[in-house]
Every structure is written in structure tokens, then in C-alpha cells.
């Protein structure tokens, strides 16, 4: 009996006492924990959460709040003067950048306007050959400017009918020096794709304007007699006349780069009246010029190309002595007094007066007309993009 009591006591002594947590343990759902291993785990957890002590409802609430993301109130108060100064500096820098960008756009537009005919006048006498990549108004800068102006036009109006103009503005079809046919058609600024390409355009394509100019031949010839001079070169040109860079080439412009020249128009009422009656005159576009062109005997304008294929030049012959020649795209032609000749000057062309001094100068009245295959919506868009300088 004593041996059984001893063995029973040893078994009871080997059992580990149950661990009961202080107040709050059961209410928090912790319950009774038994064994040394469980007590060690709980003690380690309690130390991580804040050291010794009981783990009750308050501790569980803290643990739940600690697991949520931290959200700051917005907007943040501008309590720091340094932050205010930084925002002001960034705003000033942005405004300065906008000003610089606008200034560069206006300078590029002015260069494009000159390339479109300001310097050239009716026969683009200022050019000395086919336009290259380094000429004003060409290259990516002009291309970007045309694209920006076209987007501004589309925001104000619509993209309807702008397929060819859009392709030309993005340079996909030969903007600024497209190769054209066998390299002989090289417009310097704008190449409008899918236009019929021919050095000489049939007169029926612009029947109304051709007939109006030919019927106005006597009045235009009288206007030339009123403003002409001896063209000897011994005296400076009179008022209204300008000598181009090519020797022996003079011009008097009624419209220059889309802008009316009031004093010259008043001196040539018959020619001005005829211009006002034309339907396809590029009167509001920097590519548009109109006026008298004089070429003295022995003068020659070497191969050159115009700025765009979106126009055709109408030459009304006023005084055509023998020995005068016009070669466009390798095709020779000659003027006739009282008759019009439609020329696509985006083709390589050469003008020469091979007559004797006694024959007198060659005189033509030149007007820039829209290409007959440029649609009305495209004309309106190009007038916006290439508007004359104010």
C-alpha cells in the first residue's frame, strides 16, 4: 500500500500546473494556457507588444489600429515658407518656358513666310537654285510649326477633309523638298500629296480666272505703261519697283506674300480690279503674289523651284519680244501677248531673255492661283496655317 501511494505521488508531482492569466485574459478570448512552451510564446509576444503585463481588450485594440495604413489629411497646409517659395519659382519657370516657346514659333513662322514668297515675288528671283535643307522655313522646325498651326485650326473648326494637309504637315509625303517626279519637282516648303503633277496646267482648269485676266489685258497693259520706266539701270528704280537679286529682273507687286500693297494698287486700278474679280487668287496666303515682272535682254534666271505645289502661277503676257523662253520641268514654252500660261513652279524652271537690246524687256503680269485640285476645305486650312504676317 505504501508503494502504491509513493508511485501515485510521483505521478502527481510530474504533472505541470495549469497557468491562468490575470484579469482580462478570458474576456479577451485568450482562455487558459497550459504548458511551459505556450507560456514562453505568449511571454515573447507580450514583450514585443510592450513588455510585461496583461494582454487584454486595450492591447487588442492597439494591435488592430497598428495594422491599418496611415492616412494623412489632404490638402497639406502650406505652413512652410520654403515650400511656398519653391512653388512660386516653379510657376515662374513654367511661364518663362511658355513665353520662349511662343517667341520661337513666331520667328519660325516669319521664316516660313519669307520662304513662301516674300523675297521671291512673282518669279522668285531671289532664289539661286533648288531649295536645300538649310534654307529658311525648311526642316523639322518648319514641319513642327505647320503641325501646331494645323492642330489649332482643327480645334477651332474640324479635321474633315484634312487628310492630305495632315500628311503634308507631318512630312509623310515630302514636306520641304519632296523629290517629286525624277527629282525635278522640289517644293521648298510644302508638298501636298496626291495632286496631279504637270509642269504646265491646262487653261481650262482655271477657265473663269483665265478668261477674266485675258479680257482685262488692255487695262493691265495701260497700268504698266503708267508705272513703267526705261529700266536702263542707270538710275535707281522709281517708287514701287524693286530689283531682285538676279541682274536684269525687276518687279512691281500689287500683292506680296498675301498682303495688299495699297500704294501700288492705287497706281494700277485696272489690274487691281481684275485681281478682285478672281475666284482662285491666293490673296490671303503667304504663298500668294501678284504683279508685273520685267526681264531685260540678256538676263537669265537659272533653275529654281517654288515653295509649294498647292499653287499654279498664271502668266499673262504683256510684252513678249523674240528670243524669250520658259522651261519648266524640262518642257519649253513661250508666252504670247494677251494670253495666259499656267505654270506649276514647284517644278525646276528656267527663264531667259535671249533677244537683242533693241527688242526691249519681256513683261508679264503674274498671279498666284490655287491649284485646281486643292479642295475648298484644304484651301481654308492652308490659309489659316500660312496666314500673312500681321
UniProtKB/TrEMBL annotation:
<feature type="transmembrane region" description="Helical">
    <location>
        <begin position="74"/>
        <end position="97"/>
    </location>
</feature>
<dbReference type="InterPro" id="IPR007803">
    <property type="entry name" value="Asp/Arg/Pro-Hydrxlase"/>
</dbReference>
<dbReference type="InterPro" id="IPR051821">
    <property type="entry name" value="Asp/Asn_beta-hydroxylase"/>
</dbReference>
<dbReference type="GO" id="GO:0016020">
    <property type="term" value="C:membrane"/>
</dbReference>
<keyword id="KW-0812">Transmembrane</keyword>
<feature type="region of interest" description="Disordered">
    <location>
        <begin position="1"/>
        <end position="32"/>
    </location>
</feature>
<keyword id="KW-0560">Oxidoreductase</keyword>
<feature type="region of interest" description="Disordered">
    <location>
        <begin position="117"/>
        <end position="145"/>
    </location>
</feature>
<dbReference type="GO" id="GO:0051213">
    <property type="term" value="F:dioxygenase activity"/>
</dbReference>
<keyword id="KW-0472">Membrane</keyword>
<dbReference type="InterPro" id="IPR027443">
    <property type="entry name" value="IPNS-like_sf"/>
</dbReference>
<keyword id="KW-0223">Dioxygenase</keyword>
<protein>
    <recommendedName>
        <fullName>Aspartyl/asparaginy/proline hydroxylase domain-containing protein</fullName>
    </recommendedName>
</protein>
<dbReference type="Pfam" id="PF05118">
    <property type="entry name" value="Asp_Arg_Hydrox"/>
</dbReference>
<feature type="domain" description="Aspartyl/asparaginy/proline hydroxylase">
    <location>
        <begin position="251"/>
        <end position="372"/>
    </location>
</feature>
<keyword id="KW-1133">Transmembrane helix</keyword>
<comment type="similarity">
    <text>Belongs to the aspartyl/asparaginyl beta-hydroxylase family.</text>
</comment>
